[in-house]
């Protein structure tokens, strides 16, 4: 942990112009990172209202101070085995620009982890997993100390009109 | 900088459009010869401020154009010129033209200049005309001239053969013409006979001149004054398309063979504007589409704002009182005070809510006001005499609803004028007043606004509608339909009884579009008609799109909201009256009707709902005169809900029109009845096919 913080400080101090901060969270022992500027807030899991005939990864809609926000289970979106929500389960509310429209959406993840400053140049291209449907969600891979963090392409993750959800798109 | 400017733009456009609306309505109230000074002043002021504003923002095309009509208005205002019907027509056209220009500018497009230029020429022709009563008028109109381009006239001058005998010399006239401006002359000699037949005392030549001049047509006419009766003279302005020139010389009629001058002139006058309208409309539409994203605003009366401030004041007082109670120790008396305070808070909140909603409410006159013009134009085109009556103009409704109401209403009014009302001759023959009446009536009824469009025309022709429906395969030859059911057919897609496709109505976009638009607003439209007496279209709309009265229903552990306006009744199902009609569809016989049962849990794929019919409740809802029953586990409370968009952050969901937040902070979804019916797979081809199906099946099972 101490090593971790040191590393973190070092990264923060070492602010090069093209460095970006990423919020990371855990899912099935993997660490994923998203651009911290997209994050609006982090909340504990609360029951949501089911939206009929939506894809299974859409858990439902939540009231965020008067705004209706859809909640996406990221495990299900990625096809990772489902686990029961626990006290650490959080909803990260993010804002993404989809088709010229800024949308607020919540993603359910196992737990939040850390914030890193990462130069995007250091992000490696995704190795060849053409077969995997998930490849499109990955922006790049980056090493932080000993660990590998998967940087996500939120736009792709949250674009529900994608072919992977053709079934649900009615209009 | 640019942001600042665009802010001012918005205000300018809004004010200009308001000014144009004012001009239009005042112009329509003008009667030539009986004009009211104040009315003219109002029109003048509106034109003047548009000119000023457009000049400030550098919209020179608009300001130049407005200047010309302002000049004319100024002369009329000062009594230097007598107002004529022609002026009014021209001014109305100018208003339209300005509106198109401003719409284009608002969408940041280059405005269409052609029409403006042409209208400008016509204004200048009037300004330069000799009917100005004093030389002063000339002076006033001068700035108009200097800022304008010279006009090119095409002048056809064809002297009759005996011209020379009357002592006139064409050469002198040509010389005089040349003095007016730049002159191009063509001699046409195709009528020159062979030399042997030539009579040296006759004139065989005729001329075509192109004169570019800043002087008006009247100046040209003056030159030919002496030969008017001895020659065919046609003076036409060149450049651009034009409608039949306002001052088209009567002499041009002589061009037509004497047999059919009337009809020919008529047809050309009719077809030209039609072509022009066709040519223009896509552009105007484009502009409008592009203008859409610009932020809209509402003008709110100061009294509404004041009352809001009052309410907020009261709310602050109540809040202070409550927090004071909160700081004290809890005793019995403080609990009583707390309850009282909370009651007051509820009262204040409700008042505040109502008042905030009122801000969005505008009188329906905003929609009604465009109809006098529309009716005037159309009735002129159709040669019908129409009186338009507007009732309940002050009835208020939500701005968003109003904006979307306008197009369907225009369609209905056009229909009434075109199909409903008879020509004056027909009316007289039937012993009716030759002047037909179209009445627009708006009033509140419950939580709805009702708008009636009535005409005292011939009513719907049920026989014709029936035949047409059979022809289109909508109904079978032997189907027995009531009059209401037949009338209902006009709302079917692709249905039009118009014998001829006319410009006014009957272009295939029919009543089905009207109904669809109204339904998109959660409203309904119905028609009732009596042959020979007239027909009435009734539009029913919720007052606002922001709040609705909802019935909360439970299905498994989900709570949904059904709009109260669509609910007919809720009942426990008598299983004996349920029949299976195949494909998993069940219907309930309710009095004389068969109500298809839609299982909400099935359609929405919810597990854990009650499936046995005797343990559930049926909510009978009506959509488009079509009733279905929605099967739910239980009925919960009825309450007003604030409609929130689900689409804003998610996407459209079939069968769901929106969402709301309940008292406990959870989200609940609002059911969209017509979407639900579609989702359930129930075919509802204008209700007839399905009902016929059901009846047939019923007969088999019974």
TrEMBL record, chain A:
Recorded GO CC terms: cytosol
Domain of life: Bacteria
The entry's keywords: Cytoplasm
Ranges in a coiled coil: none
One BP annotation, GO: signal transduction
Location(s) in or outside the cell: Cytoplasm
InterPro entries reported in the protein's UniProt record: CheW, CheW-like_dom_sf, CheW-lke_dom
Residue ranges constituting the CheW-like domain according to the UniProt record: 19-163
PROSITE patterns (alphabetical): CHEW (PS50851)
Cross-referenced CDD domains: CheW
Name of the molecule in the record: Chemotaxis protein CheW
The organism's taxonomic lineage, starting at the top: Bacteria, Pseudomonadati, Pseudomonadota, Gammaproteobacteria, Alteromonadales
TrEMBL record, chain B:
Domain (CheW-like) ranges: 547-682
EC number: 2.7.13.3
GO cellular component, one term: cytoplasm
Skewed-composition ranges (Basic and acidic residues): 275-291
Domain of life: Bacteria
Phosphohistidine carried by residues: 48
This protein's name: Chemotaxis protein CheA
Originating species: Pseudoalteromonas rubra
């Amino acid at each position: 942990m101490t090593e971790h913080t040191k590393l973190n400080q070092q990264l923060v101090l070492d602010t090069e112009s093209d460095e970006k901060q990423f919020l990371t969270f855990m899912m099935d022992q993997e660490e994923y990172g998203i651009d911290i500027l997209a994050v609006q807030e982090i909340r504990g899991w609360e029951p949501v209202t089911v939206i009929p005939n939506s894809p299974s990864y859409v858990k439902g809609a939540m009231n965020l101070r008067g705004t209706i926000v859809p909640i996406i289970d990221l495990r299900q979106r990625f096809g990772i085995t489902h686990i029961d929500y626990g006290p650490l389960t959080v909803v990260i509310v993010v804002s993404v620009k989809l088709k010229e429209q800024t949308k607020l959406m919540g993603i359910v993840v196992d737990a939040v982890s850390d914030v890193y400053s990462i130069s995007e140049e250091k992000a490696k291209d995704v190795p060849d997993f053409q077969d995997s449907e998930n490849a499109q969600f990955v922006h790049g891979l980056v090493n932080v100390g000993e660990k590998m963090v998967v940087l996500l392409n939120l736009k792709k993750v949250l674009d529900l009109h994608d072919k992977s959800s053709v079934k649900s798109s009615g209009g | 900088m640019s942001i600042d400017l665009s802010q001012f733009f918005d205000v300018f456009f809004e004010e200009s459009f308001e000014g144009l609306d004012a001009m239009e309505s005042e112009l329509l109230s003008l009667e030539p010869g009986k004009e009211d000074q104040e009315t003219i002043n109002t029109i003048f002021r509106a034109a003047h401020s548009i000119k000023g504003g457009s000049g400030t923002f550098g919209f020179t095309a608009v300001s130049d154009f407005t200047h010309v009509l302002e000049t004319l208005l100024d002369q009329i205002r000062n009594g230097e010129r007598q107002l004529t019907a022609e002026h009014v027509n021209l001014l109305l056209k100018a208003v339209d033209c300005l509106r198109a220009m401003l719409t284009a500018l608002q969408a940041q497009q280059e405005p269409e200049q052609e029409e403006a230029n042409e209208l400008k020429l016509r204004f200048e022709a009037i300004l330069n005309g000799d009917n100005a009563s004093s030389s002063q008028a000339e002076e006033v109109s001068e700035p108009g001239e200097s800022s304008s381009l010279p006009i090119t006239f095409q002048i056809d001058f064809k002297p009759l053969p005996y011209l020379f005998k009357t002592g006139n010399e064409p050469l002198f006239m040509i010389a005089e013409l040349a003095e007016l401006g730049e002159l191009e002359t063509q001699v046409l000699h195709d009528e020159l006979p062979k030399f042997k037949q030539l009579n040296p005392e006759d004139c065989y030549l005729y001329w075509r001149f192109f004169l570019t001049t800043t002087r008006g047509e009247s100046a040209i006419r003056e030159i030919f004054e002496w030969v008017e009766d001895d020659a065919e003279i046609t003076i036409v302005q060149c450049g651009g398309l034009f409608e039949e020139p306002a001052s088209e010389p009567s002499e041009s009629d002589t061009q037509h063979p004497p047999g059919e001058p009337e009809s020919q002139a008529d047809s050309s006058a009719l077809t030209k504007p039609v072509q022009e309208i066709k040519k223009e409309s896509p552009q105007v539409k484009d502009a409008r589409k592009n203008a859409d994203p610009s932020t809209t605003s509402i003008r709110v009366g100061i009294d509404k704002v004041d009352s809001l401030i009052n309410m907020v004041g009261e709310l602050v007082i109540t809040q202070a009182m409550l927090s004071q109670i909160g700081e004290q120790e809890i005793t019995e008396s403080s609990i009583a005070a707390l309850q009282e305070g909370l009651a007051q808070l509820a009262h204040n909140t409700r008042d505040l809510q109502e008042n905030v909603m009122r801000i969005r409410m505008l009188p329906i006159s905003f929609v009604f006001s465009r109809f006098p013009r529309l009716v005037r134009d159309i009735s002129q085109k159709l040669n019908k005499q129409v009186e338009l009556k507007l009732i309940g103009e002050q009835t208020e409704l939500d701005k968003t609803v109003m904006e979307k109401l306008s197009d369907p209403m225009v369609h209905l009014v056009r229909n009434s004028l075109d199909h409903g009302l008879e020509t004056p001759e027909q009316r007289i023959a039937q012993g009716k007043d030759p002047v037909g009446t179209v009445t627009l009536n708006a009033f509140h009824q419950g939580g709805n606004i009702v708008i009636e469009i009535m005409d005292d025309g011939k009513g719907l022709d049920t026989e014709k509608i029936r035949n047409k429906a059979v022809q289109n395969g909508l109904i079978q030859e032997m189907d027995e339909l009531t009059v209401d059911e037949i009338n209902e057919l006009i709302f079917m897609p692709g249905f039009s009884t118009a014998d001829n496709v006319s410009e006014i109505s009957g272009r295939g976009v029919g009543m089905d579009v009207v109904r669809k638009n109204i339904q998109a607003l959660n409203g309904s439209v119905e028609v009732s008609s009596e042959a020979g007496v007239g027909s009435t279209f009734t539009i029913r709309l919720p007052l606002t799109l922001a709040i609705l009265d909802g019935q909360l229903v439970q299905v498994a552990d989900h709570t949904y909201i059904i709009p109260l306006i669509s609910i007919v009744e809720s009942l426990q199902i008598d299983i004996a009256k349920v029949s299976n009609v195949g494909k998993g569809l069940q219907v309930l016989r309710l009095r004389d009707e068969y109500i298809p049962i839609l299982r909400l849990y099935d359609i929405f794929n919810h597990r854990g709902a009650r499936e046995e019919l005797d343990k559930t409740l049926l909510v009978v809802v009506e959509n488009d005169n079509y009733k279905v029953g929605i099967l739910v586990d239980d009925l919960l409370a009825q309450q007003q809900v604030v409609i929130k968009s689900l689409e804003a952050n998610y996407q459209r969901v079939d069968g769901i029109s929106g969402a709301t937040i309940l008292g406990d902070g959870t989200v609940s979804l609002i059911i969209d009845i017509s979407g639900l019916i579609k989702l359930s797979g129930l075919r509802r081809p204008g209700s007839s096919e399905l009902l016929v199906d059901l009846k047939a099946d019923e007969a088999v099972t019974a």
